[in-house]
Design brief:
2 helices; Mth169, Chain: A; 83 residues; alpha+beta; homodimer; 3-stranded antiparallel beta sheet; 3 strands
C-alpha cells in the first residue's frame, strides 16, 4: 500500500483572488508580515500497489487527466509506503 | 524572508464527499488501485521575518484564527527561508 500526497498550485502567472482575500484578512488581524498568500490543493490518495516507479507513472497520468488543470496549475507529488 | 507551507486536512472522522467524487472519477478512468481519496488545502505564505521560532508561533495563531476550522480540520506547516 502506498500513500500519495499530490500538491496542486496555481502557476505563478495566474491570479489568485482567494489568496489575496486571505492576505487581506490576515492583515486586518494585524499579521502585517504576510507579504503573499497563494492557495493550492492537496489530494491524498491511498494506492493498493507497492511498485513506486509504476505508481509514479500512474499518478502522473491521474494528475494530467483529472486532478490538475495543466493550463493554469502545476503539480508535484510524494509517495510513501503505508501499512 | 520565510516561506510557510500550511497543509490543512479534514479530520479522519469527517466525511469528504469531494474526495469520494474524485475516487469514483478515477475508478471510471480505470485507476482501480485508488482505495481512498481525501482532499485538503495548501496555503503558501511569504512572511517578511527571519525568526523561525516567532514565525511558528504566529502561524499557529493564524491557523487557529483564520486558516483552519479546528472543529473539522487538522493542520501542519513547514517553514523554510527564501530569498
Amino acid at each position: 500500500m502506498l500513500e500519495a500526497k499530490v500538491y496542486i498550485t496555481l502557476k505563478k502567472t495566474v491570479a489568485d483572488p482567494q489568496g489575496l482575500t486571505i492576505k487581506h484578512a490576515l492583515e486586518s488581524l494585524e499579521y502585517k508580515e504576510v507579504k503573499q498568500v497563494r492557495i493550492g490543493k492537496l489530494v491524498i490518495l491511498q494506492l493498493d500497489m507497492n511498485d513506486e516507479e509504476e505508481a509514479k507513472k500512474r499518478l502522473d497520468q491521474m494528475c494530467q487527466k483529472l486532478l490538475a488543470n495543466s493550463i493554469i496549475e502545476d503539480y508535484t507529488f510524494e509517495l510513501a509506503p503505508v501499512n
